[in-house]
């Protein structure tokens, strides 16, 4: 059983259990914890202040020096990043020098406490973020 944090935006769950990307994907969907939740996807739509507020709130609850798996990958085609629904991603705030596909096998995406994305090996152990499904 994982430990979810409090004080995160409604609909988001930060799990402070180290998991691989695939374990996080499965654990987010575990109906025993959160009914039909999914791995989090960060979405920014223009000047949407509600989304911006949610992201700023989420940011304030992430710890430094930890990675957080999110529902983004390039498992099917290198450099073509998709969310867990198979859609191209809109949010592309990469950390400097990322993505770099270091070692030729970084096909999953994590964020840091600044909400900067970076590609990681899917078997990297990170905390992870779940969210309620998009309607």
From TrEMBL:
Keywords: Lectin. GO terms for molecular function: carbohydrate binding. Gene3D superfamilies: Mannose-Binding Protein A, subunit A (3.10.100.10). Pfam families: Lectin_C. Residues 12-131 form the C-type lectin domain. InterPro entries: C-type_lectin-like, C-type_lectin-like/link_sf, CLec_Tetranectin-domain, CTDL_fold. It comes from the Eukaryota. This is C-type lectin domain-containing protein. It comes from Diploptera punctata. The lineage of its organism: Eukaryota, Metazoa, Ecdysozoa, Arthropoda, Hexapoda.
